[in-house]
Amino acid sequence: MDNSDIAITLVLISAFMHATWNAVVRAGSSRFMTLAMVDGTALVICLLALPLVSVPSLEVWGYILVSVVLNTVYRLFLIKAYETGDFGQVYPVMRGVPPVLVALFSYFLLHEQLSLQALVGVLMICVGIISLTFVRRMTAQMFKPILMAVCAGVFIAAYTVVDAKGVRASETVLQYIIYLTVFQSIPIPLLAFSKERSALGHAIRGHWRVGLFGGVFYLASYGLVLFALSLDAVAKVSALRETSVIIGAIIAALFFHERFGWRRMVSAFVIVCGIILIKVST
């Protein structure tokens, strides 16, 4: 397998894990506390792994700090979106916005160019993802969660490009993964501890297994993406990662009793066609 094939395989595995840990957050009685437990689990794992890697250079520290800020804002929008909207509608919007923005950012900031086939594949994935939002008739109540999801998607695109530069400037991919996760996993648990200490303690006692499961999947999911970002074009990696919406739609149907239907099947078909175009363009 060449680097492109390895990157595609890693990202598709990551997509499954990403949809799963997002469903864990959505299923929690308190999205904020569940996300705090997920981040807390990732924080503990990476603190234990710190001795395995060297301290990053000043350049890499810059990328880490910017990414932490962007990730924290993204998480706050994520919580608001899941508190007010259905998983099956919020998740596709949040994951459909980044690929186009990442393609633009990576062109101007990283000077990466996609072939025509790959670009069409990225656009097909975006169209297929966003079309999942319209499996039901839009209402006024859906405006706020969709707006929150769009804002979250913008910050996803921003931190993806920052992390692509950071992981390529690091000594090793593992170094960037561990140090980034340590610092980006602090803000949400810290906010939860300072504002709702008793609620956090209750959540940990009653649902620590959920937090552990979600944390492991979250860490593994983004770790695989960072490895992929070091191997292939950022726009392609970003677009392929968002195929997690297909898995998300299945999870929404099975566990949240949200309809799948023929429209989601058509959307899934468009996304798969986009994946094939990206694959044959390599």
TrEMBL record:
A family per Pfam: EamA
Segments crossing the lipid bilayer: 6-25, 32-54, 60-78, 90-110, 116-135, 142-161, 173-194, 206-231, 237-256
UniProt-listed GO biological process terms: lipid A biosynthetic process; lipopolysaccharide biosynthetic process
Domain EamA as annotated: residue spans: 6-132, 145-278
Alphabetic keyword roster: Cell inner membrane, Cell membrane, Lipid A biosynthesis, Lipid biosynthesis, Lipid metabolism, Lipopolysaccharide biosynthesis, Membrane, Transmembrane, Transmembrane helix
InterPro entries reported in the protein's UniProt record: EamA_dom (IPR000620), EmrE-like (IPR037185), Small_drug/metabolite_transptr (IPR000390)
Main location: membrane
PANTHER family according to UniProt: 4-AMINO-4-DEOXY-L-ARABINOSE-PHOSPHOUNDECAPRENOL FLIPPASE SUBUNIT ARNF-RELATED (PTHR30561:SF9), SMR FAMILY PROTON-DEPENDENT DRUG EFFLUX TRANSPORTER SUGE (PTHR30561)
Name of protein: EamA domain-containing protein
Species of the source: Pseudomonas trivialis
Lineage: Bacteria, Pseudomonadati, Pseudomonadota, Gammaproteobacteria, Pseudomonadales
